[in-house]
Amino acid sequence: MSVRAFTMPGWDHHSTWGEEEGLGHFYAQLYRNSDDRDGPPLIWITPPRHVVTSIDALAEAIAAAIGPFEPVPPPAVAIKAWMLREHPEP
Question: Is the pLDDT of residue 36 over 80?
Answer without folding.
Answer: yes
